[in-house]
Amino acid sequence: MEVVFEGLIDGEKVPERYTCDGPGISPEIDWRGAPKGTQSFAVVMDDPDAPRGLFTHWLVWGIPAKSTRLPANLARQRELPNGIKQGVNSGGAYGYYPCCPPPGKAHHYTFSFLALDIEPDLPAGVNRERFDKALKGHVLEEVSVTGLYERF
CATH code at 65? Predict the structure, then answer.
């Protein structure tokens, strides 16, 4: 599966537009070549370097299997008009939480795109624990990009 997270290059700096130092929008994601049996797609973004441990920045699921693009700047709400659902991030809000590490060492932000063999039976607004439990054993393929971001 080929996945492009707009402006993100593995191992390089996260563009400011996806951070709290910019407008803090979610990136556009384009893909093709989903594996056979794909029923839906999901997106996870997290920061393992957060002071209190893993910080989940974004949970998205219910992306239809026939889709090839997730637009940038998704609304920060539980459910989107096209049936896509978003979970609660570690900041306690729905949708995308921009990269915003405390001053100091660069943090690693991992953006993962998942092809699933199910349409997860999850209500919008669930937390990471419920999300992970529902997807366990159902990921056909995962493509990830890790970007770095630091603040002074």
Answer: 3.90.280.10
